Amino acid sequence: MKQAIEKVYLESSRLLDLAREDTLKVNISTIKREFYSLKFMASVIHNELCREFFYLVLNPTIGTSKIISLGPLILKLYEANNWYFKFGNKRLRELACERGLNSLCDEKLRELKSLKPSRIEKYTVVGNKLAGHYDLNYFELVEEFSITDSDEFFDDVLVLITYGKRWLQLLQSIGKLDSE
Predict the structure, then answer these.
(1) How many angstroms from the chain centroid is the CA of residue 83?
(2) Is pLDDT at 108 greater than 80 in this prediction?
(3) How far apart, in whole angstroms, are the C-alpha atoms of residue 159 and residue 72?
(4) Cα–Cα dist 70/140, whole Å
(5) What is the pTM of this model?
(6) How many CB atoms lie within 10 A of CB 102?
């Protein structure tokens, strides 16, 4: 399992580097720059999820420390989900519409919707606190999260990692310029 997760993480790092290089090549204030900026942001999000997951697998912890060590991943999971479904998909649709590809984009987003993790909202408060925004209820939050089904949680992480990779593929197909 470690090798598979490492492979996904290393691929996400490669995609992030490519997205950065592509963004640096284009002029500001062009649709191509907007496309590459969106690609870069999605690559950052995808890479952060992969990296946090990989680090957890590579550096196992035990007991209460294990629960607390999930905080950064929970927060990134929530923020990534929020970005895709409140900003990223909207901007992707706008770019597709500008290129006359809105029906293709909508079809592919409907397919991707089947991957949407269903339990991320329930991690919101716990993740924010476990990620370092401590308060007087920290013990209660740790206890609350300790009863979370770890298989369900890691399924949600893997689903959003898969979603991110496929989202980047869709963005690439929408943003492919005629001259490329």
Answers:
(1) 8
(2) yes
(3) 17
(4) 16
(5) 0.85
(6) 15
Specify whether the CB–CB gap between 108 and 145 falls below 8 A: no
Residue 2 has a pLDDT of 78
B/e letters for 6-27, b = 16+ CB within 10 Å, e = fewer, are eebbeebbebbeebeebbeeee
The residue assigned the tokens 């090549």 is 25
CA distances from 138 to 71, 79, 144 (A): 12, 21, 10
Q: Give the C-alpha distances (Å, rounded to integers) separating 44 from 20, 38, 86, 136, 148.
A: 9, 10, 17, 32, 27
The upper half-sphere exposure of residue 135, i.e. CA atoms within 13 Å in the direction of its Cβ, equals 9
Neighbours of 76 (CB within 10 A): 21
- Taking the mean position of all CA atoms in its chain, how far away is CA 79? 8
C-alpha span between 20 and 110 (Å, rounded):
28
* Mean per-residue pLDDT, 11-34: 85
